Structure prediction request, 221 residues.
Amino acid sequence: MVKNHLVPETEVVGVNPVGEEQRLKVEETLESEEKRELSPEQQEALLSTMQSRFEAHPERHEGVEWHKVRASLDANPEKLWSLQQLEETGGEPDVFMADEEGFVIGDCSAESPIGRRNVTFDRRCEEILNKMENEEPAKGNAVDLTAKWGAELMSEEQYNYLQGLNPIDLKTWNWLRTKPDGNGAYNFHRLYNDKVGQSRTALWTQMDNGGFRCVLRFSWA
Prediction:
């Protein structure tokens, strides 16, 4: 199998402590409130869509075989529900990173997923925006929605890798996860015209041409 070099876990989990604490609390609440599973019919429909996309874009996963991916997906039915959320919101998820340990499925849509626009970065920023005069209320925030779906925000490293496979976001931007900067600031920023970090913005910004991308990790079955 050809290595696509997964970003080491130590490099991609460097998130702002406030945002990470919020994410964990949301996940804990949702686990007790919601049963996350798809019906057999929904599973087969999702897997059929995933297979068609996988076969249509071999450049994203050179050396990776679908039957091995399918075995890992079948072994993680709880993650299929998460994958369905990415699909339903326009992420067009596909395998784009893999190594001997497993693979990453992420949002590979050409532009920011259409069902995730007009969101702030996190709940605190959403509350700030919603208190501003002459501003439309946000349609949620990236941290809470990602946690609700059991996924992770795509990291800057993962985004750069995906950009090397297929140019994306020529007209849109996304909230991403980045490494800590050491000064206590939020470590997230937007992307615009396929250039990472070219334009930073207030975390309570929400626009109709910006959203967020997610990833899901799987181990080989």
About this structure: Residues 79 and 150 are 8 Å apart (CA to CA). The chain has eight helices and eight strands. The helical segments are 9-12, 17-33, 40-56, 66-74, 77-88, 123-131, 142-148, 156-165. Residues 9-219 form one domain.
